[in-house]
Fold:
Amino acid sequence: MHYIDPKGQSRRAFLRRSGALAMAGTAMPFALSLSAMSEAAAQSATDYKALVCVFLYGGCDYSNTVIPYDDASYNQYSTIRVPQASGGIAIPKDALLAATALSPTTALPGGRQFALHPQMTALKGLFDAGTAAVQLNVGPLVVPLSRALYNNSNKRLYPVPPKLFSHNDQQSTWQSSSPEGSTIGWGGNIGDLVLGQNSNSLFTCISVSGNAVFLSGDSALQYQVSTGGAVKINSVSGTGSVFGSSTVKAAMAQLAQQARSHSLENEYNKVTKRAVDAEGQVTGAIGSAYAAGTFPTTGLGRQLEMVARLIRGRNALGSKRQVFFVSMGGFDLHDNLIANQGPLLKQLSDALSSFQTTMAAEGLGDKVTAFTASDFGRTLASNGDGTDHGWGNHHFVVGGAVNGKQLYGYAPPVSINNDSRQAGYEGHVGQGRLIPTTSVDQYGATMGKWFGLNDAQLAEILPNLRNFGTSLTVNETAGGSVIYDYPKDVGFMKPA
Amino acid sequence: MFEEEVVAAPPGAAGETVPATAAPSASVASPAALGAALAASALLAACGGGGGGDGSGGGSAGPSGAGSLAPLANTSTAAGYMYTSAKSDAEAARFLNQAQGYATDGDIAAVRSLGYLPWLAGQFDAAPTQGGWDWFNGRPDRANLGFDNMIWAQLMASPDAARKRMALALSEIFVVSGNDIQNMASFPHHVMAGYWDTLVAGVTGNFRNLLEAVSLNPGMGYYLNTKGNQKENNQGRQPDENYAREVMQLMTIGLVQLDSKGQPRTAADGSKLDSYTQDDVTNLARVFTGYDLNVAAGEENASVSTNWTARPMALFPARHSTLAANFLGASVPAGTDGKAALKTALDTLHAHPNVGPFIGKQLIQRLVTSNPSPDYVGRVTSVFENNGAGVRGDMRSVFAAVLLDNEARSPAGLSDANFGRLREPMLRLVQWGRTFGISSAVGSWGIGNTSDSASSLGQSPLRSPSVFNFFRPGYVPPSTAMAGSGMVAPEFQLVNETSVGGYLNFMQGRLPVTAGFNSKDVIASYASEKNLVLDASALVDRLNLLLCAGQLSKASTDLMKSALATPALTAASSDTNKMNRVYAAVLMVMGCPEYLVQK
Structure:
């Protein structure tokens, strides 16, 4: 049903695929017992679980989203970014910011404190209620890196993720561990391992945004719906006539869905056939829209409402384990950061809050976990009224299964210093482009484990995970040495 | 096509190498015959005149030698062209569908009469017709119109359709999206129209001029932040890096070092070699500081006068970084003035060996096929590097090299299960309109924004979601045969269970003359098709020729003809029933995968 890149990671692909087959009840050779022992396979799956990836296209600015708040850090931030009142892009430390200052259950070391962007009041509410957590400074890594190791010429020992700072490539890397051209994402791989638990495997990985490699697995396909649900193709679906002719409709149905020998024609028709085959079931399952006001009428609000309707219709769809993808754009704020980012973050915050509230009302508050991802973080340095492409970023995890009201990972330096003899050199690669201290693989593994995947499966779908579970000692010339831990389970999810 | 088996004589072997393929059905042009054809095109050039850009500058012919296609004859690449004229209407339609996106009876006759290259030279040499800025600014009702009206008018109605088709291809490499401009600029519609005119001028200009015109265009200034970009200061403020990065990644050299055939250069360990580093970006960013809108004295400000929208941005030296800038092996010494720094930067980018294969391959993908052979890319690169008169970056010759190449013209592509490209949804609509005589009664072309994928095309001209275009040239659709065989299929980034239905429903709704767009103001006439309505077979054959260049299989046309037999029609049938047959025929063709994939 699909093709494997012959030069790709075929062993991994084979294992993942056979895991899916095993769960579908296919005869299982001895060598595949690895997958069979997985929690996911062992579960009778009487319950429901879903992961929802909220992708922030363009690269969300980290330090105006989760803002340094303790006086020392804030002052550094404000000096570098220049106060808004002076025409800069540092958000003022005023009553508004105090209202979104975070008081985590466990204080961060070194007196570090953070506040959410002042427009993220709804997300602050989730944080306080224990259903949201902040993952500090997460991003793509192959191995743990300091600035010295990043600059080390031995790229075999200290590989750097390819095509850093490039939008399309880092979107792809976040979603699939590889730059543009990648065809297998870790959301899709999670789907591969659970699709046997769904009566229609097509509904395992669903995007309400455009095409995203995140949801494509070895077996699992990305299925796409609009914010209005599945589109019925009037000239192809069902019976009736087109322009007064039932024979024309029958011909359309044949032309648009038949197998073709030309590769592009065939794939196009396969999509059309999938759309036609699924539309009726989806339309029946999602029911009517939620009452007005349940979700914001923003792009993300409408997408998450559709996710909620699909989840509400899970029994009609025969779904027990699902991975969703939604997105919003506009974060590439080289200019107008102050004017434009706040409204975007408010949309994010409000939509996530409505979604969590709705899931709780459906009795699934602790069965659905949403998390944010983005191309990259941005520079701490300002270019006048915006910021440039960076690397590590702060992200959010939302749901009743989240160990909320906590910040995870390490508070990054608030520095743009490029002098290795002085403090603030380590931790970024210039202009405050952060070296992540938690990898996307760790971030994904933490959620994957909650979703029911075992260690071996996580290692198969997150190819760099084997390089973590370690520590790295970073020696600051001007400071002391700092030890960073890279646990395979960051800890922000409650036990499955 | 990603292997090299069915293409023509390699560059440099003209006149002595027998092509590896079996003898083609088309005649093989001798160099002498080709020379005659090119001489004819030079004559056309003399008649057509050079023409200037309108409104936005951006370079017409000029000292760069970007004139007629005559110098192309001096190239070994052109000497290898085996298919110089159409031997059938279908071959002419195939060429036209690639070159201008549609075919009419008259165009087919002209191509058959002139041959491919002279026809193309005639298109390039003809004086440019009214540009987008002049069109928009000249509309008395412009307060109620937008750049969507402008671009649809240009694409649906401009006499110089080939030029506009090629400019649309450039708009997918040099992306400025009206989605964002409309929220940024005063006079956003003038800005978009001026940018469009810059691209149109670029079709027949030189790449170096196009690069400069794009870099200094106020639309690009808004979009990628060169407008208002300031030099560094001692508080840590840095120049905005956006344009410096994207002009390299997307508009000139790409991320990876390429050989002349577009293949990545690799290090000893097999890893691909990067084209540039973050340091190159940071340094190049200094060159693009100091620019802002060019509002002349006496024009009050940018929200009162529209004149700046048709001018390159101006340099404000006090805001320009005078730090040294070292990038891509070039150096701008500290203290260099902004104009000289820009020249060094753009000259460096233009001279980079990646540009030919990087731009050439994308133009092949936009006009001909998603997976050109490396040799095809190499032949276009060689023309990019030297048009035959020693000129690098002559875009007329580059477009000609894309369209005249044996791989584009050979019938072999028609039986290759991997050749061709998915027609972009917006191009399907333009083709439909142009083929069936679309017009706008009030002349405002209110087709609107067709971006919604659930209810419309999922694509609208000049409305890319980001600078990365609607789709990436390297997009590999997951879970497909293409993914398994190492092919790309860029346009498939727009294909999903929503958009396939959105497109068909949209077309079904818009085809009838009782529907169209803007309260029936914009409708097709179907003048010739109405005459064939009682002969379903002739009707389908005509659509197959014009829309598909005869690429529908007999099985498909038989199915369509048979389906159209019900309901039966006679001369006495109602007009509604007659027109329904026309619409049904068009919808079946435009929904057929053999149409959707253009070969």
Q: What stands out?
A: The longest helix of chain A spans residues 337-361. Chain A has one domain: 48-486.
